[in-house]
């Protein structure tokens, strides 16, 4: 494609991103950078439409970019053919972050800040944590049947489980169970904890002590749940503002994201690539053909990897969103390197 077509396409995309209105040849002819007549621009726009880079909403309207057009534009941004139109590097107001040292919360805070600053939906994939070890576990008896299990990991994350036993236990039994747990589970990662709980020693003891059997089942379920990679979203309600669709359809999309692991395969792919941009059907979900997802991988030298990013309309300000993601990613990487 010749340079004039590229210049016209980029001008249409920039104009549409700013105004959200179809772009006509007359308005483009006023752009001194293009420097050709409205008639010439109309011919070029027809060619771009035929090539699949532009679309018409109806016969008398101006053009809007297609997903193929956005892809060409984004590739040019990422290759520095189109310079980012942003000001000096700016700092986020970290005062809005909950003060925390837990990795899960750091990532959630970062996701929340992305949603706030972009006006879109922030998302993150919190990875499986092979380097997370149990440093403290203790069972506290509130009543003879009501127990609280407290876990503290080397990530400084604190988790509580509540359990109501079928039969009461005395404090001596609780102390014995605490001794067993502390002697067999401490300094183990999630996989090691599950392996210990499934050992022959625990199988024998669980058959003899019903309370231990119930407690071990709760610990195993909590460990399995925490060991999984998961996707978190912030700013889902922003979809009602940035997606020009009915309230009902937007709510259905939000419910879909909440209840399905539909994006897990997408986010788990290309973990060694820093920046990824998925536009329209590249997301692989028909309902999100008018959306784009931008993600960036965070990592540390110990192999912790995850992704932070934004889900928004395909006419988003790609340059601004990418710049925001880069800054937030630096915040996450700085935290996990300090841990």
Describe the structure.
By secondary structure, this protein is an alpha+beta fold. It is built from 13 helices and 10 strands. The strands form 3 sheets. Strands 7-3-10-9-8 form a 5-stranded antiparallel β-sheet. The chain has a 3-stranded antiparallel β-sheet with strand order 4-5-6. α1 (3-19) packs across α3 and α7 runs antiparallel to α9 (210-227). It starts with a helix and ends with a helix. The model has no long low-confidence stretch (mean pLDDT 86).
List keywords for this structure.
10 strands, three-stranded antiparallel β-sheet, alpha+beta, 19% strand, five-stranded antiparallel β-sheet, single chain, 339 residues
Overall strand count = 10
Largest sheet composition: 5 strands, antiparallel
Shape: elongated
Look at the helices and sheets and give the structural class: alpha+beta
- Report the average pLDDT across residues: 86
Question: Roughly how many Å is the radius of gyration?
Answer: 26 Å
- Spans of at least 5 consecutive residues whose pLDDT stays below 50 are none
The proportion of strand residues reads 15-25%
Number of helices in the DSSP assignment? 13
Helix content: 40-55%
Give the N-terminus to C-terminus distance in angstroms: 49 Å
Order of helices and strands: HHHEEHHEEEEHHHHEHHHEEEH
Strand order of the largest sheet: 7-3-10-9-8
